[in-house]
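Box 3.1 A note on notation
Throughout this textbook, protein chains are presented in two layers. The first layer is the amino acid sequence; the second is a token string describing backbone geometry. Keep the layers aligned when reading.
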Amino acid sequence: MSVWLPGAPCTPRGCVEHTAAAVAVPRAVLRLAGVAALVLAAVVLVPFGRWVPAGAVRRWCRWVVRAAGVRVRVTGAAAPTGGLLLVANHISWLDVPLLAAVRPARMLAKAEIRRWPVAGPLAAGGGALFIDRDRLRALPDTVARVARALEQGAAVGVFPEGSTWCGRAQGTFRRAVFQAALDAGVPVQPVRIRYRTDRGAPATAPAFVGDDTLLASLWRVASARRLSADVEVLPPIPPGRHTDRRALAAAAQPQEFTGGPRHPRGR
């Protein structure tokens, strides 16, 4: 088992419920085309990223999710400026643009993403901090790199559960990355992401779990009808309120959730 990737029990067959109501195939294809166009446009504009206003980045992130057919609702106060550790629960590939819609951030991403077509150049151009999650010895260096980015005034986005969950179950925030916030003396911004059907029930169709493929997850989202994403920006945790990473991780973990099993606390 990886230090960064605990084994979540969620699988596509066991946890993901396909929505009974699906849009017509041409409409789903158009949605995917819209997502692809927005992502490709972002790749082209990556060299000019430093001149793009943060507000434009947030709008682009919402457009990507909306193009996939998912309505977005963000509640809560604006995230603080300056160095900030953004943390959220992890359900789907949609979580990345949703978290960036709260505040554009350098994402902590697994090293394999760097080699992915399209997503790799986009992540690298966005300043992603790549980690080798299979090497225990890489952990202190990764924490130090995150702390340096925070000290320089950047926002760093992290999914501390270490793995995706279906949305009805959740993992426990792993503690290691919270040490970076303590070392840099910056606030932690918890964000809670939930996907719902048009009736308000938890939706698992957006989940990207287990041996699911990205193509299968993309199609499931694009072909679903009336999905919504609720992004709740919780009160930030100021530096100094918690002096150890265990307490800080526990404070950042959203306590109210849709129910289901929780993963034992990790490193």
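The longest helix spans residues 25-45. Strands lie at 70-76, 84-88, 106-110, 129-131, 155-158, 188-196, 227-233.
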